[in-house]
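Re: the 89-residue chain
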Amino acid sequence: MEFQQLIESITPEIYNKLKSAVEMGKWPDGTQLTPMQKENTLQAIIAYDALHKPEEERVGYVPPKKVDEPCDSKKDLGPDDEQPVKWQE
């Protein structure tokens, strides 16, 4: 079975079980996921989301910053204003 066919055959119930397995680190029967199983399961979850969910509902979605949101709390300082150096100890 091709990967795309596999993703298309995943039901919402299976998707939830896959998600739970990754979150818990084990299958419903208690068997630990191997690193390869975890990687493959995550790929399946991401592919399922891309196929069935809008972007903002997908696993790992981070909303973009608003344009007017400052990156720094010192937004009143101009480019020529001095800024103190912060040394880490």
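The mean pLDDT is 86.
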